[in-house]
Amino acid sequence: MYCYRFYEISFLPIAEFTIPSDTLVVIHQHCIMNDPKYWDNPQKFRPERFLENGIYLASRPTASAPFGIGRRKCLGERLAINVVFLVLVRLLQSTNQYEIALEGGPGSADLEPDAYLPDIARPNNYKIIFKNKT
Question: Which H helix or E strand runs over 29?
């Protein structure tokens, strides 16, 4: 969540709203990144949105800002992306003799965000199991 304070101006007009001076403005990234105006079926997990002809897009779509934008963008973005990639590759390499499955079977995880944590877009808890392929 990103917050900005405006001190130098007496008010700030945004669309039909007027924001008074010294008002804390919160930009809710989850709403932007799940807006049907920018994304086809935003609630559906579709990683191919970020591919073009099987290649990762060189530039990020406008409404995709998981690490923020501009001067206050997260400095650790590059590191985070590389670490997640390495962890997933290592996990998949070390578990090639196992099938990774949901404890309750396919489709049993409740992937709806927790309504009591509006600032954190994450699914409810679920369990996975490693089944031996042999």
Answer: helix 29-33
- Domain locations in the chain as residue ranges: 2-93, 95-134
- For residues 14 and 36, what is the distance between their CA atoms, to the nearest angstrom? 21
How far apart, in Å, do the first and last CA atoms of the chain sit? 46
Each residue's pLDDT tens digit, 22-61: 777 777 777 788 888 888 888 888 888 888 888 887 787 8
On whether the CB atoms of residues 34 and 43 are closer than 8 A, the answer is yes
Is pTM beyond 0.90? Reply is: no
CB 6, CB 12: distance < 8 Å: yes
Cβ atoms of 114 and 120 within 8 Å: the answer is yes
Cα maximum dimension of the chain: 70
